[in-house]
Amino acid sequence: MSGGTAAGGSMPGPGEDDVDPDVMEEPEFWTGPTDPPSAGSPAAGSLMIVGTPIGNLGDLPPRAVAALAGADVIYCEDTRHSRKLLTHAGITGASLRSLHEHNEDDRVDEVIAAVRAGRTVALVTDAGMPGVSDPGSRVVRAVADAGLTVSVVPGPSAVLTALVGSGLATDRFCFEGFLPRSGKDRRSVLAMVAAEPRTTVLFEAPGRVAATLADLAAACGPGRRVAVARELTKLHEEFWRGALEDAVAWAAEGTVRGEVVLVVEGAPVVEEPLAGDDVLVAALRARLGAGERTRGVVDEVAAAFGVPRRRVYELALAARDDGPGTAETGGGEPRPPPEH
Question: What is the number of domains present in the chain?
Fold first, then answer.
């Protein structure tokens, strides 16, 4: 960007003392082919992954418009759908090629050849980021493996939009995409979701939401919390939040319409004991059988395994009274009182 002045005077130049190295750099803006390209802007011989709106056309960012306008060819999931998006953005005359789940493998060599020939190739899907439960990941991997440039123009994400609006924990989460429709694979994934301590984000078709909520309630328990997000960013956007058993009843009241994202609360974390009774008893019997005094053995085993002394003392009594060869020599050592 060319130099200029701020409200308080001239802008500091590179290397001046008032530049704080701990503060994030000033964002760079690229507005078109006449400006110096910043990192990630369209460049000859590159594949640009371009995020598109998940429902609201107003969410198409200027940088995505610039990338699509500057591309030599745009690969898209549905050319008719993408043509409408380009028309909304004022982009005309774009060269469109289809790339969807049924022909992605066939398009890989074609995309690599175009990028290697110095062309700027853009990749979009009908909504959101290519490669996230949508075509694109195989092409991206192949272009990257060929040593060619891959850049991303970030955009709206149904996964993150639903997650942050769910009211559930966002610090750790996982994404499972669409569940398998039936059979052992579905049961296996449901079991993993039930045991997963992180928040889980799922996609689901509207006609299968009621059945999936019922299956989740059976696998995770009726009290596990869930958020059902539908029609995100659109006029009829809705978040339903509550327990899975209530979600099942809600879904049964009528047909769930529109694109749906499910956000499921993580499983409660159950802290396992540091050592099981069998491990503690084995340690106690070995020490008591060698003739050591109960009080000292209890103290040392409790400290060694990091478990409460009372628990070890009770196990020691059982080991001394019931285990063969564990009677103490000298007989009749008074039992130490339990700790307070």
Answer: 3
